[in-house]
Amino acid sequence: MSRTLPAGRRIVVSEFAESPAEAIEKFISIQPMAAPDPAELGAGDVIVEIKSASVGWVDLLMTSGQYQHMPSPPYTPGLEYAGIVAWTGSAVDPKRARAGDRIYVDGFLAGPRSVGGYQSYGGFATYAVAPIEAIRQLPKTFSFDQGCNLLGNYETAWHCLIARGQLKAGETVLIHGASGSTGLAAVHVAKLVGARVIATGRSADKLAIVEAQGADHVVRTGNPDGSPGVRRFRDDIKALTNGHGVDVVYDGVGGDISLETLRCVAFGARYLIVGWAATPDVARGKGQRGAPNANMLPTNLMMMKGLSVLGSPTVLSTLHDPSIRAQRIGQIMEWVEAGKLRPYVSHVFELSEFKRAMMAKWTGAVVGGCVLHP
Ligand SMILES: NC(=O)c1ccc[n+]([C@@H]2O[C@H](COP(=O)([O-])OP(=O)(O)OC[C@H]3O[C@@H](n4cnc5c(N)ncnc54)[C@H](OP(=O)(O)O)[C@@H]3O)[C@@H](O)[C@H]2O)c1
Prior knowledge:
Layout: E1 8-13, H1 20-27, E2 28-33, E3 45-54, H2 57-62, E4 81-88, E5 102-105, E6 127-131, E7 135-137, H3 144-147, H4 151-164, E8 172-176, H5 181-192, E9 196-201, H6 204-212, E10 217-220, H7 234-240, E11 246-251, H8 256-261, E12 265-273, H9 299-304, E13 308-311, H10 314-320, H11 325-337, E14 345-350, H12 354-362, E15 369-373
Parallel strand pairs: 8-9, 8-11, 9-10, 11-12, 12-13, 14-15
Antiparallel strand pairs: 1-2, 3-4, 3-6, 3-15, 4-5, 5-7
NADP nicotinamide-adenine-dinucleotide phosphate (NAP) binds at residues 56-57, 156, 160, 177, 179-183, 201-203, 206, 252-253, 274-278, 312-314, 361, 364.
């Protein structure tokens, strides 16, 4: 097929900043974008007219160079996006994709986190080009907003909780950062395997949504007087577990919260290191490395609790062993098709509002997903 595509717009990161907040203020702009020219594309390529792009934590980290691999500026952010097929190359099987199909894109195989030629096409744009291998049909009941909040979040939740944490029905899991996009996915996945979920967060309003999304119990971690830091929440967790402590911890927050958590885990618990949202500047900005020791855990408590501390990097583990991916995607899609799993998106912005969207994510205003509509 061939229809002339009108010009569009894209968000451009012109250089790395010291921090995402500085990048948003100084180094990210909206610019005109010519539609991709089919004459310059490969036979297995697909042009996507983007309808929704997820604003993810990793998109933010990348703007200050803090991610294990990323494009060099200038580049367009947007690891995960969903939209409509606008053009397909001559070798694309129409059973896999044809013009007009509602699709979402696998961020492992296209976009800024992918490796290779498609890295330059991010989702914060009117159009992107992706290889047919990266194109997945949107589940019929899903919106575009849900499509671009599926794989990254739920693959992370599944990899951490199930592949690494071996979470089982009847066990109790403590989920820190439960209002976040991967944290809320972890709440959903933990409930789907039959675990009991204690979800934590700093805001009562956001925790009310997390509870409505399935958490069995919610616990606030902030100080009652609003001062910075983490309150002594170990007593709440012990009370909720009859003094036993939790069997598994999903820690996407790090810092003080991790230290307090070591006081309320069961003997032999599995402690999943998922991320460090509370200490995001562990690597220096502008793409330099050299992370200071931001998240140190005391070995005496690990020892006395018989703790298994499990680093749980989804992307790196999958790059080391690509065979681990099929099982988790298979399980996630089974839940989606059964109507048991639906990503939650709290914030939607137009493309021109990219600064507000990125700041909303960076300052923790969001529950679940935050998206841009190009
Ligand atoms: N292991 C993996 O494979 C993997 C994959 C993706 C992401 N990650 C990492 O996991 C972490 C969470 O990612 P995400 O996408 O879920 O992020 P997110 O959507 O921004 O959520 C992070 C949550 O952390 C909580 N939080 C607590 N203290 C915070 C603080 N001082 N500053 C900011 N947030 C704080 C916030 O909840 P409240 O406001 O309710 O407290 C927020 O909702 C990040 O470090 C990310 O890099 C890991």
